[in-house]
Amino acid sequence: MNSERTFFINNIFNIENENEFQKIALRLFRYQAKENLVYREFISYLELKPDEIQSLEEIPFIPIGLFKTHSIISGSDVPTNYFESSGTTGMRLSRNYITDISIYEKSLRKGFENVFGNIEEYTIFALVPDLKEKKNSSLIYMIDDWIRRSREKRIDNKKQRTDDGYYLNDLQNFSETLSRLDSEGRKCIVIGVSSALWDFSENNSLKLENTIVIETGGMKGRRVEPVRQELHQKLKKGFGMKRIHSEYGMCELFSQAYSREDGHFFCPPWMKVMIHEINDPFRYCHVNDSGVINIIDLANIDSCSFISTMDLGRMSVEGHFEVLGRMDGSDIRGCNLMVI
Asked: Which residue would you say has higher pLDDT here, 239 or 150?
């Protein structure tokens, strides 16, 4: 195995402070600038020299649209699979090629634990298609991993199957089972595409006390897009809760950011968001000013860790970020297209 790649695998999930993040990010940038053909060509077009780049602000971020037209791969190992973006017939989809799925698994597990604690303490209810239907979805892979690990709860040293599972096409059972477990004091997580959660909330009025609800994005193609505050108010009423969590991820990333409420997202230690001005990718916005979201995802070792999205956002003084929408002319995309 490449010694540099081994270094990143062994260190990115142990980052403890900003100084460590910057050192590893710059080292990974130089590695990918050499080992990733598409990224190397992109940098050469900008007439930049990787060895002269000394700060995160100087790093060029690859346009996310290139994942639709090119194979973004770092290193010489042959990918074994890929994650693919959601879309409708005729849409060109993005692909993030997978060399080592264990990196993604470690990222999604540690990312969950940073926010919610031990997965084995929860019963997972998923309002999404199952993995058989969407085998190349990074979101579904993540949720399936949660469900499998949650089902391996041990009682008297024996494995016991729980009520974890996919409920998108069984909403009556979902409502009854969730209400029963919540009333028994069981800790539950409901995660779903926002359109499915919205539809459920329009026809139900629960009162939950031991449940976390996580929405994964906007309506994207299903109905007129509500602002996040409107979506969360609808879900709070439908599930009888005081707060709604959100997940921010995409197939081009190996990491996810989560909000604790109202769409204010926090990154895990190996992921960072930077907001640049719309008309200048090397000029970064002040706190609370809106611009384009750039993402450093150090878990993207075998792909590209430096991605310029088509999402608009802003940073806060506290260090969280908000997603404000999409740039004009960008494709509609997102996990809710999986249920069309």
From this structure: 239
